[in-house]
């Protein structure tokens, strides 16, 4: 039987700490003092009779008992948010709300067409798009802040409690501005060390793939680098400098097609990874999500040259 002492504030406190990785960051997110947040967490652990988080100077880590509770706490918050938003939509515009997280390559390559197709299929679905790093978006999906995430499949440890439906495969590419000294030449991986590089940061889904690719090519770490997967920064910085930008192909697909960037002829087949739909597997999809997923699948097929 559900213990009625468990309140909404307990669920919000625990899921936010788990997502942010520290009490300090969670306090800022929830606009609470650290003593107040610690007290709320202690109350929840006392009610459940289990330690949910291990805390030290390095932050807060979810315990095995915490991982079990986090999954269901996230589902509960997600259902409650959908109910509140649904009532608000009926009293307002009548639109069906849907919150979607997108990784940068998807936001640039897939989403424009998918949203256009969605508006044709179901103009009463109101989509809120949120982009960000893989780990953050998946954490928000688990706790119910997002209904769906679209992007590269992450490492196995990051995908626990999340379903994945593949849409297509995507490579990482190295691109430069037109007129760059490397453009139009045969290039070796070792040559990249002679130029400034825009490199994926540690939390990016493509970071392990790029790291392994360099190791497999016998290349050392690229020291002169800025770490970012921001499309806006990468696009502008690459155009104005001699930097080499290492990024998912979807982020720069249009730039390559229209000649604003040039792809270096490097064999990066080893960086291929699946892009797909991530969701909470125990949850029945809403009508809005079902229509949106259909729009995404049709758009992905069209981009692949296989419209149905």
From TrEMBL:
Keywords: DNA-binding, Transcription, Transcription regulation. One of its GO terms (molecular function) is DNA-binding transcription factor activity. It comes from the Bacteria. GO terms for biological process: 3,4-dihydroxybenzoate catabolic process; positive regulation of DNA-templated transcription. The keyword Transit peptide does not apply. InterPro entries: HTH-type_LysR_regulators, LysR_HTH_N, LysR_subst-bd, TF_PcaQ, WH-like_DNA-bd_sf, WH_DNA-bd_sf. Residues 6-63 form the HTH lysR-type domain. GO terms for cellular component: cytosol. Belongs to the LysR transcriptional regulatory family. NCBIfam families: TF_pcaQ (TIGR02424). This is LysR family transcriptional regulator YdcI. It comes from Salipiger mucosus DSM 16094.
